[in-house]
Description:
The chain is α+β, with helices and mostly antiparallel strands. It is built from five helices and three strands.
Amino acid sequence: MKVASVAEVKARLSSYLKASAAGPVVVTRNGKAVAVLLGVEDDEELERLLLAHSRKLRAILDAAERRIDEGAGMGHEEFWRQVETANRAREETESGKKSRPKRRT
């Protein structure tokens, strides 16, 4: 793991980006860590990284966990039953749109 000041990173960004492929680069300001450069290999890794640090997703998951703890959750089988029902409804709606002839005015 490398550690570099904001000024160093600013002056040699390309080399620090290259170094981030091998491991995190900690960026400091006045000796305190303020950021980390992380290399990513593909879009999936980037998506996982962004979701892991998403405050909005964390709030959704925390709220869901509270509802489950309060007994307001849904069982596994009921969840999948609702997913299947929603999928069938969506497929019926989509197939209905495709088969309807367009009206002329």
